[in-house]
Amino acid sequence: MNQSKNNLISDIAEFLDIDEKIFGPYTISYNQGDVVQKRGLDEDKQSNEYDNQPEIVRTEEPTSPQTIGDRLKACTTLEELRTLCEEADELRTDLEGTNLVFGVGNPNADLMLIGEAPGQEEDRQGEPFVGAAGQLLNKILSAIKFERDDVYIANILKHRPPGNRNPNPDERVRSLPYLLRQIEIIQPKIILCLGKISGTTLLKKETTLRSLRGQFYPFHGTELTVTYHPAALLRNPQWKRPVWEDVQKVRNRYDELGCKP
Ligand code: URA
After folding, report:
1. Which residues have CB under 6 Å of ligand 1?
2. Tell me, which fold does domain 68-256 have in CATH?
3. Is 128 exposed, middle or buried (0-12, 13-18, 19+ CB in 10 A)?
4. What are the residue ranges spanned by the domains of the chain?
5. Ligand 1 geometric centre to CA of 119 (Å)
């Protein structure tokens, strides 16, 4: 009898042990003669074998990183594009600490002028063509009856290269998408490239300035033409006549196209 009692107690103990392992802790109390088994924890707080599993945290579907093309397309105003340019390390040259020279002028201009890259004075003031070449450019513009504020002026590069060297091919390639977006936003009817670097970069033609000038090329819905850079004109006064011819053609084409007076 004692033996079977002991067996029964050990069976019950084993059962309770297994039960606790599976369903969690409990207490036993007596209620009017009935044994009531109470779990020690609320049903939803009971520990079970899943409690130590790592929690599955739902995250947003991974999105592919925005390309620079997407970010440029998202800019619909010059202010938005300027902000993007301010953040863009790829627009920088290897000269440290330069300022962004984004562009200046009438945001709705029908005539856009594009130079090469900012020089020292442009970097200091954050505005294109404000040095000696800029003074000459203002005179050229006024000779064909434009105020500086009538047109929009930008450069292939938006940062100054060291020692006023020519923009290198890599810098031009990195800067071009930003300039193209700037052109798309402004939608000029005519683009006048100032100098060989500007003309060959935009037309993607490696040739001499002499062979580029004197024609209007279709370019992204506008017409593009090329003349000598004002800085080159300061060093080579014999180019005054060809520049005068080129800018007169620009003025005539501007009027023919019915551009804003
Ligand atoms: N030369 C350029 O090409 N751009 C400037 O802004 C100034 C000088």
Report:
1. 115-119, 122, 128-129, 131, 133, 155, 231
2. Uracil-DNA Glycosylase, subunit E (3.40.470)
3. buried
4. 2-58, 68-256
5. 6
Testing ligand 1's pocket by substitution, the residue of 104, 112, 122 carrying the most ligand atoms inside 8 A of its CB is: 122
Q: Determine the residue of 104, 121, 155 to mutate for testing ligand 1's pocket, defined as the one with the most ligand atoms within 8 A of the Cβ atom.
A: 155
Residue 216 and residue 222: Cα distance in Å, rounded?
9
Q: Which residues pair with 99 in a beta bridge?
A: none
Q: Which of 15-29, 182-196, 217-231, 238-252 has the lowest mean pLDDT?
A: 15-29
The number of C-alpha atoms within 13 Å of 201 and in the hemisphere containing its C-beta is 28
Q: How far apart are CA 66 and CA 61, in angstroms?
A: 15
Helix (H) or strand (E) holding 111: strand 111-115
Residue 56 is predicted with a pLDDT of 52
Q: Angle 250-253-257 (CA atoms, 0-180°, nearest 5)? A: 140
Bridge partners (DSSP) of residue 39 are 26
